[in-house]
Structure formats: C-alpha cells, structure tokens
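thread from #wetlab-drylab

HS: before we spend reagent money on co-crystallization trials with WT7, can we at least see a predicted complex? here's what I'd submit
DV: go for it
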Amino acid sequence: MSDQLIFEPSETAIANTLTTKEQYEALYERSVSDPDGFWREQAARLDWIKPFTKVKNTSFAYPDVSIKWFEDGELNVAANCIDRHLETRGDQIAIIWEPDDPKADSRSITYRELHEEVSRFANVLKSLGAKKGDRVTIYLPMIPEAAYAMLACARIGAVHSVVFAGFSPDALSGRINDCDSNIVVTADEGRRGGKVVPLKKNVDAALKDCAGVEKVLLVRNTGGDVDVSEGRDVWWHEASQQASTDCPPEAMNAEDPLFILYTSGSTGKPKGVLHTTGGYLLWASLTHERVFDYKDGEVYWCTADVGWVTGHSYIVYGPLANGATTVMFEGVPNWPDASRHWQVIERHKIAVYYTAPTAIRALMGAGVDWTQKNDLSSLRLLGTVGEPINPEAWMWFYRNIGKENCEIVDTWWQTETGGHMITPLPGAIAAKPGSATKPFFGVQPVVLSPEGQEQTDTEAQGVLCIKDSWPGQMRTVYGDHARFVSTYFETYKGYYFSGDGCRRDEDGYYWITGRVDDVLNISGHRLGTAEIESALVAHPKVSEAAVVGYPHDVKGQGIYCYVTLMSGETESEELRAELRNWVRKEIGPIASPDMIQWAPGLPKTRSGKIMRRILRKVAENDFGSLGDTSTLADPGVVDDLIEHRQNR
Ligand code: WT7
C-alpha cells in the first residue's frame, strides 16, 4: 500500500534544517507537557507593546468553552509585520506582485514602501470613519492593495472581513450584513486568467441590501468604467494623495479580534470564523518559519488567494511577521498556458512553492512537457494544502517539479485552526505520500470512534479531534458563540471536532480521509451542501433539492445535485443550464453544479429526513452497497434514481 512509501529527508535538508528530528521530538514533548513554559518562550518571537504575564487560559468543557492566550499582553500585528523590520530590512523586498498577464510588469514592494502604503491606507480608513473594533469588508482581487488594506485594518485595530472576489453580490451582501460592516474596500475590476471580474458592479448590487455601509473605498485597478456614488464612494488614488504616511499602530490586547473570515459549515449560512491578535500571529509566524523551514532572503510563494485563510496566514501575516519576501500572484495556473506557474518560479527564483492538490492534478493533466520549459532549480521545498493529495499527484509533483531534490510538506489545517496543525517539518519528519504525517508543536490530535471513544492504539481509524487548545485556534463564531460551541464542541464533549475523518498508521502518521459532515471540498474550497440546496430551491421552478459530493479527477470532489421540479415544469437541457447559472449567480462560480439529475422523488425516511447516504452512493455509481433502504417512506424512488443517474 501507499503508506509503505517513505521519503526520508534528504541530506541537504537535514544539514540545513531549522528543526532536526531530535529537536522536533523534544520540542513537541515540551509543548504538550509544559504548554505555558513552551508558549511563553515562543511568544518572544513577537514584539509586545505590553508583555503578557498569563499564557494559556483555555477550556474545551462543554458548554463553557473559552479560549484565551496571552490575555493581558498588548501588541500590534501590523507593527510586527512591518515596523520592526524597518531598521534591518527596510530595503528588502516584502512583496513581489506578479500580474495576471505575463507580459505586464511585476512589482516589488520593499518593507519601507509597505510601511508607507499601509500607514497611508490606515489614515484613509480613519478619515472614512473606521475606528478600533469596526468591521471593514475587503472585496479585492490579488493586488498589493489587498495586503495594504488588511494590514491597515490591523494597524488601527479595525477587524477585517475579506470576501473572496469570486463570490457573488448575494454572498457578499450576506457577509457584509452578518458582521455589520460600515466600510467596504473594493476595486473597479479584477483580472484573472485573461478575464475581467466586475467587482465594483458586484458591490453596487450587493449594497442594495446593505443599509449599514456608509463608505466604499475604491481602488483603481484596470481603469474600467464604473459608477461612482457621490458621497459614498471614495477613490483610493485621490484620498491617498493627502494622506499622511505617519500612523502610529494601535496597542491591541492579545485577545482583540484581528479578522473574521466566512467559511461554510454543514448547515445554515456560512459562519464568521473569528481570529484574535496575539495567538493567531504567533501561530502564523511560527508555522511559516518551521514548516517551510524558511531562511532569510529566500523568495517564498503561496499560490492561494487572500480571500481564503491560506492567503491570510501564508501570503500576508506569517511571512511578513518573519520578514520574508512573499509573492502575490494575480493569475491562474493554466493561463495563458500550463507553464504559467513554472514561469513565475523561474522569473522570481522561488525557493518555496506552496499550492493545492487540485492545481497539481490539473497541471499534471496538461502533460509533463509544460514543466520542462523553465528553470526550476531555485526550488528547495514544495508544499500542499486544501485536501488530501493522492499519492500519484504527490509523485508527479516530487519528480517533475521538485526534480527529486525538494522536500514536500502536506499541511493539514482549517480556517478554524489559523495555521498548520498536522504536517511534516522538512529535515525532521519523513514524508509518506498522501499523509499529513505528524502534529505541529502543541497540537494533540486524537482519533475517536464515531461514538466518541478515544482510540488509544497507535493504529486507529475514526474522526479527528484535537484534545487541547493551541494559540492559533479560532475564538468564536462572530455574533454567535452558541453556534461555535455546538459546531465544534458538542458532538464529542471535551474535544475540538474537526469535521474530518482520519486514520493513524503504525508509525503514528495521520492520513486525512475527508469530511465526515455535509461539507464539500471542491478544489480545496469549502462549500456546504445546505448553501447550494438553498440556492437551488430559491429558483421558482425548483421544489426540492439535495446536494452531495462525488469523486472528481481534478477538483477532488464535484457537486452533484438532485433536483425535484415544481409540478407542471418540464425537465430540459436548457433548464439544467439555467439552474447551473442560477447557482453561480447566487453563490459564485466555485459553486457551479457539475451534475444535475432530475429526481421526481428524493429518498426520505418516514419522518421526512433525506437519506444522503443513498444519494452519495448513487452519485458515486456505487449501487451495490446502498445499505438498508427499508426505512424509506417509498423505497421505489431509489430504483428510479439509479435508472436516471446522469451519465458522465
Ligand atoms: C478542510 C478545511 C487549510 C486551508 C485551506 C482549506 C481539508 C485541508 C488538507 C490536507 C487533507 C485537508 C480538510 C479540512 N484539508 N488541508 N493537507 N489533507 N485534507 O481550509 O476551507 O477551512 O478547509 O480542508 O477536510 O477540514 P478550509
């Protein structure tokens, strides 16, 4: 089996690593036996305005879950990511921006320039009325201004909520209203894969439903035509001219909110995951350094979008806190052709390349020739995140991109965890393709039986929970602490429940097997089946809908929708296309259904509960193991579903 395949760290990796195997073992042991002592020492990597005296004050006890780290300390995230580097690396490049169009010029921003831009941005936000604690929604493409806006919020103590620029006006307005933002930062348009995204138009549409928004700060990016609403919309290039580059960073309590990021759950609308200041930054910074074994002067590239947590922790906060040079890429892997990423690696002499299995599989599908046009010899380390990587894709990555000279880190974590949780440390932990390997410092994974019994044997299978708090953990669901407690701490009392299944092998390595709840993972992005269902039933011709995932070669999972039409409506290809577009409009292109099957009836129990297990099996084309269907109100619907299963 694939878990027999082991890649020991190379001699070069061992010789240069920041963490040897022995150090990892000793530090890990200390981190769980003496968390207070361990984290007190680690927190010294940050600059504190007021030192903390307390380290850990956390409880997973249901229902009084409470998580506080460094609770009496004060610091500022922007000062840690920028100001403290000025003396030693003011002229070093902080951000390399690589545009969508390979023929356009890239831009390099030094730490000194970053300081000026962020301070100016912060002063403009203040002039628009932003104060400490206010929520600012950021809806920007992958341009440096996205990082400026995030850091400017951090500088003045405003809480940012970045909404991925691929989300629809409806998705945007829901998020703006949920956290009651009074300011939105956006751009005229975004560029991605040669296409233009009408961001300002989307904001205008969204704001029809957002009474609380007073100001829109508008970045001129493409120069495209947009409507400007007098009194509400302010151009950044105009406002910034008068703005001072002096903006003293606000002293923030370690437990003051830093940002909200919406993510999908198994039920209801997306939840606002709240991260705070001290613990989050420590986690992002320490994991970025140790997991990527980051060395001064290296160019580091995480290919995520700042609209996701990966972009927050590993494009902006982690690398900048460490004084790294971080690349921000506006484009996509396969435009203008499938060598685009490899060009970027060659152009900027990238040492660390962190990407998603779905991108690897897509590039693998394009053929190995595309990988041979560029010089990839600057690479030292490769990383993946977002979903389990199949060993075949891992091997392809290892051979064709790493040329068998690079370590690979498969990092398991979540929006909720703030940063890496289970991952190899290069030079310390041998890789097994497909396994996220071992826990990071302070992380105590446990495998529970579905009934909640902790599995004590090394070899185990079940649901993945975490036994105790770590500094980067989310603190609450914004505005709904009860939902935080019930989602993560109710099913398995005393533990943080990840929502993932996993297996632990004989060497204590963790293999994530995917979500055990109704959350889909589409190309490494999370979507709740409930969200897609409610988008579908909002269409006037749809009476009922049930959505499940099915295996998809490139995306990992595809979206399979069973749709029952209103009586009198006719099934047609046109209606299929219409529903697909409808969902794209309601949520965004990432939620595009891959399959829509007409279902005159859905398999329900007598109490009316849809049996998704059966729908999943039918979608997977796995009719042999449907299990017990005798509790169905009408077992006949299953035969009908099988008969009409959509061909692929
Ligand atoms: C879910 C979290 C973490 C940033 C990107 C996604 C899956 C993530 C891995 C991995 C197997 C993984 C899990 C997790 N996942 N990384 N290395 N191996 N599965 O963040 O949107 O919060 O999704 O992504 O299922 O629960 P997210």
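DV: The longest strand covers residues 542-552.
HS: ok that's useful, forwarding to the group
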